[in-house]
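Page 42, continued from yesterday. The earlier attempt failed because a stray header line got pasted into the input along with the sequence. Redoing it now with the clean sequence only.
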Amino acid sequence: MAARVVLHIGQQKSGTTYLQEVLGSCTDGLAAKAGILFPPSLREILPDAIENHERATYGLLGTEYPWVSAERAEGERRKWVRLAERVREWPGTVLLSAEALSVVRAPAVGRLADELRPAELDVVVTTRALGRTLPSLWQQHVRNGRALGAPQFFESLAEQRERGARAIEEERHLHLWRSFALGGLVRRWAGIAGRVTVVVNPGSPPDLLWRRFAEAVGAPCDLPPEDVLVRRTHAGLTLPETELLTYLNRAIEAAGWDVFEARALRERILAGNGARGPRAGVPEAAAELVRRWSDEDIDDLGRTGAVVLGDVEDLRFRPERDAHRAVSAAGMGEAAAAAIMAVADRARFEPERRRRPLYRRLRADRWS
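This time it went through. Structure tokens are written below.
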């Protein structure tokens, strides 16, 4: 059985995908130099996939995740069984990374701990300022097919947070604040962990997050290739792109497209969209709310006694960095035009006269 298991549990949008990409690039070095096993998962099937262990935890915790059905959990069960075998077979430290674990409730935390004992359990939480993570979460939801505008998204977050800490801990559907209310997240996992370490992601330079994370898990900082350390795994949607997709998602739903057709359309648009524009941020109407949430969570984190790597002031809301104004009409127009061009089939719009054989011969003669 592993002597120690380190659980990296996110939060969402805190740089977890970047860290998983780095870890996947240096698994051999981790094992050889530090005795740390980062078990292969997705790359056994898809060589270019980002390594993580989220699907395996679906097989253990199932419908504890609000988005996982009983049928899907059963289908993922074998992944958990195989992962648990690797943990039992490895004599040193095993590192597991699954940001979705940040949303599960205390009984599920205990169930996971029971599966991994008698190994010593340490927990690493990566976090970033709410003023950066919440807008990023909004654009990700829209990218996945939801249609809430930014003001409505922040209104829904306020309604959920106003339910109070007890409801957040107990009610399954309030999972967003189980992850993003940092003090509560730390306390929930402190009950099973020998040590909880919070790693602050300031956003740049990218390799600083890796160096802090490596310190937290006891890994050499110099393992990954330099090109991986400076890589960004997600560009994210800009504000005009996200606003455009909210309208598109409503139209798709009204037209009755299925989830696969809708996803293919969005991916086609985003792949060919060259308009870009400013990034999504906190809307002006929600700025005071996010400032208050940020201050509350920083104070609450301080009361937990968790080890913090980085400066907690990087977590505080900063309007000049985190806020945005509504997208301009010109910005929306550019995004819409780029979206149309991305999906337009130019051949379909060729005038009828150009399709006639005589016209084609005359045109060829002209340039011969």
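Notes: The chain has 18 helices and eight strands.
Reminder to self: strip header lines before submitting.
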